[in-house]
Amino acid sequence: MKRTIAVSLFAAGMAMAGGALAQAAVGQAAPAFSGTDATGKPVSLDQFKGKYVVLEWVNPECPFVKKHYDSGNMPSVQKYAADKGVVWLSVSTSADGDRAGKSAAINEWVKAKSAMPAATIMDTGGAIGKAYGARTTPHMYLIDPSGKLVYAGAIDSKPTANPADIKTSTNYVIQAIDESLAGKPVSQAVTKAYGCSVKYG
């Protein structure tokens, strides 16, 4: 009996440890969150009830992020989403540090790249990232108007840092948006995200 209890407690402990970065479950309610964007304004998922919402984990220094921004691909996907009435929220997760300095830097970067997120949330301390299990930059999620997570994973099907691969890849986010808006189930609802590791400290 004691051995069974010990094993059960160990298993529970491992589940909790893994749960800190357990990916939010597609088909289930997306984790609620609130935070502050890079301009100092409060942002919460509740603000966008009734709309599709894309979450994009971002790090301007990451080569995989640069692939999609330096080429203009991510801003064009953001515009595509916006034209469809989809809210795009970028999330910058960091363990700690100069929040004001990072906010200013990311605002400049967003402007320089002609990016179009509705907001860039400064996830200092990583609470939002941990709730979603965000592991890489980029790591993408699509939430439907009912608040259900319908896609989680990579931006596209070519897990490289080479911009030349964008043209021949399947953009999973556009695919998920189009299928959802057409009333269809997302055909590839979970894919393996690729990119630089999100730093949680």
UniProtKB/TrEMBL annotation:
Keywords: Signal. Pfam families: AhpC-TSA (PF00578). InterPro entries: AhpC/TSA, PRX-like1, Thioredoxin-like_sf, Thioredoxin_domain. Residues 1-22 form the signal peptide. Coiled coil: none annotated. Residues 24-182 form the Thioredoxin domain. This is Redoxin domain-containing protein. It comes from Massilia consociata. The lineage of its organism: Bacteria, Pseudomonadati, Pseudomonadota, Betaproteobacteria, Burkholderiales.
